[in-house]
Amino acid sequence: MKERQRMPPHVRRQQIIDTAVQLFYTIGYEGASLRDLARNVGINKATIYHYFDSKEEILFHILDLVGQSLLGGLIEANKSSDDPMKRLEAMVRFQLGYMEGNLERIRVLVEEQKSLGPELAKKTKIVQGEILKLYENVLEECMAKGQIRKLHKATAAFSIIGQINWLYHWYRPDGELSIGQLVDEVTSILLYGLCEKT
Question: Hey, which of 7, 37, 85, 110 has its CA 20 to 30 A from 76?
């Protein structure tokens, strides 16, 4: 196979990751081979091994990059106010807004976590645990201030994260709602429920 023009290693590495996201999104991790990936990138299969040891390592890097991006954004959102309810809303809005331009990555994160072996899965779960803890802590502060009713904080945190992560199944950027409208609607439902305020 004739390879494309040689490019800096970090650029080629990112190209492999980005192409793998599209491939795993389209046909799934199990359905994609390194041969498919190499063909889509325009390189020889052997070249991939200069950057990654295995297909599993590529998947791990995708999940880790998404997890770290989410964690970093949530940490910043959690610094946005002294009011815990405003911080909670900022966190939810950030995580919802992250879907814009990242639907494929979110799907790979949610659906292909199971494809990692125990050692790499454990590493990704560290970041996921930190995200959960951020939500638990801010929910606990909201409860302490009487801003929300008393809840089992882990259940509440998992519910928020789970509902946000599930949106990739049905949200379409070219649909009825813009990403901004979606963020407003879902934030309102997550934080204030479905009932009219009385």
Answer: 110
Burial class (CB in 10 A: 0-12, 13-18, 19+), 195: exposed
**Full domain range(s) for residue 111:** 59-192
Residue at 198 is within a domain: no
Asked whether residue 48 falls in the same domain as residue 75, the answer is: no
Q: CA nearest 63: which of 139, 128, 145?
A: 128
Domains identified in the chain, total number = 2
Candidates 198, 196, 191, 91; CA nearest to 151 is 191
> Phi and psi (nearest 5°) for 194?
-100, -15
> Can you tell me the mean pLDDT for 165-171?
89
With a threshold of 0.70, does the pTM exceed it?
yes
pLDDT digits (tens, 9 = 90+) for 120-162: 999 999 999 999 999 999 999 999 999 999 999 999 999 999 9
